[in-house]
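Obj: model holo form, ligand = pyridoxal-5'-phosphate.
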Amino acid sequence: MKIFLDGKLVEKGEAKISVFDHGFLYGDGIFEGIRVYNGRVFRLKEHLERLWSSAKAINLEIPIHKKEMEKALIKTILANKLNDAYIRLIVTRGCGDLGLDPRNCTKPPSVIIIADQIKMYPEEFYEKGMEIVTVSTRRIRQDSLSPNIKSLNYLNNILAKMQAVRSGAAEAIMLNAEGYVVECTGDNIFIVKNGILYTPAGSEGALIGITRDAVIELAKNKSGVPVKEVRLSLYEVYTADECFLTGTAAEIVPVVAVDSRIIGDGKPGKITAKLIKEFKALARSSGTPIK
Ligand SMILES: *Cc1c(COP(=O)(O)O)cnc(C)c1O
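Output (holo structure tokens):
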């Protein structure tokens, strides 16, 4: 496996960064998860825009231009001979001293691109649906840290994930400080009730996922399913007809039980299945070609 590290493609074993990099010391850095389907990078422009927005928000200057990043990304995919892939794009704060102050980071930010393959959940979950639970770990308040900064610090989400796993579920519903549903640990959440698709609004503290956006567009424009971005309570999730999660790594995964409440008839819903089909078709046919 070849990794892109600061302008060069290096072997996996050689892809190393300093222990003084603030990305390592403090989670001071940003990332994107991007998928390649059928030789096409899905929503590349949107991912790069979000990366640049994350950088802007933490006052980090990405050392290369967007066009160079795009070239580096495609070069890395080609070097690994991948036609379908999961790409991890990372920009760290760079090497500093043991203090927090990024001004003491003398080495410029590191740019790392890993092209690999991952499946977030077992295949069975995609076919039969998954069971998830609500955890007590609340999502960090957005007035403290915007969920839209995809930072290298995921402890909040990791603690929630560990809690879910401890209770035998693969994924956790996280609530905001007010106790309303926000999202899962790395996925956005949707429910269907009486033919309408609902998802927590950005104002609830949900990250505006790129997969979430694609699903909203497909529902509105292709399936004729109305979409509402709302404040969502657990009651509404428990009594939903359908439920599913979206994310670049997870793609679209049906949910059939939440906190032991069976959702709908306990099988992946019809609208969910339709959206999965449409998403697959969109992902395979749109996107930036790598050749
Ligand atoms: C990245 C992420 C998502 C999903 O966003 P996509 O753009 O669809 O990959 C959802 N929640 C969290 C916390 C995330 O980090």
